[in-house]
Amino acid sequence: MPRDVDQQALFERFSKKYAIIRSPLLRRLECAICGSDYGATSYTTLEQARALHARLALQPGEHLLEIGAGSGWPGLYLASESGCAVTLTDLPLEGLQVARRRAKTDELGARCKLAVASAAALPFRDASFDAISHADVLCCLPDKREALAACRRVIRPGGRMLFSVILISPGLSPADHRRAIDCGPTFVVAEADYPELLDATGWEVTEQIDLTTEFMQTLRISGELDQLHEGELVQVLGADEAARRMARHRENMDGAERGWIRRHLFAARPA
After folding, report:
1. 79-108 pLDDT, tens per residue?
2. Angle 222-225-231 from CA coordinates, rounded to 5°
3. What is the distance between the alpha carbons of residues 270 and 65, in angstroms, rounded to a whole number?
4. H-only helix segments in the chain
5. What is the mean pLDDT of residues 162-181?
6. CB of 48 within 8 A of CB of 214?
């Protein structure tokens, strides 16, 4: 069973997070953890972003759609490196406002567009984009099938999609499955395996890569730095949010170490 969630409270927490995500402390921590300073909310490291760039093979004149883009990592990086255009979508306006400022700093100009939109209800014409990416987004959404179907609708023939996602390991006992739900992101439960969901929404999986080892390394560094800077985190985030951040890192790490949750990268193309 999925975890009971107050979605409005979750939305408000994300909105508040973006208001302080560019603080000097959080930028330093992000650089140490991920190698980026965009205000990342995913577990995508700079090394993984470079691998995304290579796999997507974006070119000037092509158009990338970044779903759940938050403050723009790694979508803005991919656009800067490739010369492509990028459209960033998310629901919290605060994250996209951070992304707009970063796009200006990166001199992306008219190559970057922003849209406040749900992944399950994309406000774009059919076949609008050459490529789609999203980083650890589906595990934070209840409507995974609808989001993948919306992505399929807006991709052009011959396009490609790459996304990372945290998922529950297959074959767990009922007890361990329940523990995986508690250890994972809010909507880690999926109604079917991701290859099945992709097939059902008109996608063909071309590659599936296990990033769990890298995921655990990122969590380990995050936990160590959280403890080292706990006092500063309390000053920036407040006591409750700092405690929640540290607890989630511990829970994620415990789940990954015990083999209950994993992080995978999927590459897909229109079937």
Report:
1. 999 999 999 999 989 999 999 999 999 999
2. 125
3. 15
4. 7-20, 24-34, 46-56, 75-82, 93-105, 144-154, 174-183, 194-200, 212-228, 230-237, 239-257
5. 97
6. yes
